[in-house]
Amino acid sequence: MTGSPQDNSLGMIQRLVLLIVALGLAVVLLVLRGGMQSESPMEQLARQSLEPQEALSNGRPTIVEFYADWCQVCREMAPAMLDLERRNRNSLDVVLINVDNPRWLDLVDRYDVNGIPQLNLFNASGDPIGRSLGLRTPEELKGLSEALIGNQALPSLPGVGELSALSTPTATTSAGPRSHG
User: Fold this and answer.
1) Is the dihedral of CA 166, 170, 174, 180 positive or negative?
2) pLDDT tens digits for 73-118?
3) Residues 117-138: pLDDT tens digits?
4) CA pair distance 115, 125, nearest whole angstrom
């Protein structure tokens, strides 16, 4: 038994509506996931990041961010970091170091990373001049980058500290943690 022409056209209309709905959902999902670019800002930064040694020796100030893919605060700060990198591409290097990558264990140890995100701040000579722990707003990142680029003192922000070179002790006797002398 074959259906009437009216039944066939109704089936065709249903399939067409279903196709339109499916295409609409696909477009909505594409837009919600960031369009055709599937990489998150953090992934974009990590992919285009210079090697740390190259950044610290090329004559530009550098911000090294220690992060992890699972770190929500790192992900929250990533769009501002990407914008910072794009605005200052010719005058400031932004380097991302994933603390979960064994390749970077020596840097994690060397810079005493014990919380993320941690920003280590270097002058144009590659000398460490400060560190920032925790979430930074776009305005705070702008202030840090302007200080680095202008070779000025770092802004006074909670969780930001300047680093200074340790001086060599001049005394010939050494005191241990239990000495009272």
Assistant:
1) negative
2) 999 999 999 999 999 999 999 999 999 999 999 999 999 998 999 9
3) 999 999 999 999 999 999 999 9
4) 26
Average the pLDDT over 167-178 and give the result. 38
Where do we find the tokens 């060397």? 110
Q: What residue type is assigned to position 32 of the chain?
A: L
Mean pLDDT for the chain?
83
Stated pTM of the model:
0.68
Q: Encoding tokens for residue 5?
A: 């022409």
What 3-state DSSP class applies to 106? helix
Domains belonging to the chain, first-starting first, are: 41-162 (3.40.30.10)
Task: Name the token pair of 15.
Answer: 């399939």
Token pair 């369009």 in the structure block, residue = 35
Determine if residue 34 is left, alpha or beta; phi over 0 gives left, psi from -120 to 50 gives alpha, anything else beta. Answer: left
Taking alpha carbons only, the member of 110, 115, 107, 31 closest to residue 74 is 115
Distances (CA, A) of 95 to 73, 167, 178: 17, 29, 42
Mean pLDDT on 6-10: 65
- Residues composing the chain: 181
CA–CA dist 153, 168 (Å, integer) = 24
Asked if 125 and 100 touch (Cβ cutoff 8 Å), the reply is: no
- Cα–Cα distance between 148 and 146 in angstroms, integer? 5
In this structure, the number of other CB atoms found within 10 A of the CB of residue 79 comes to 15
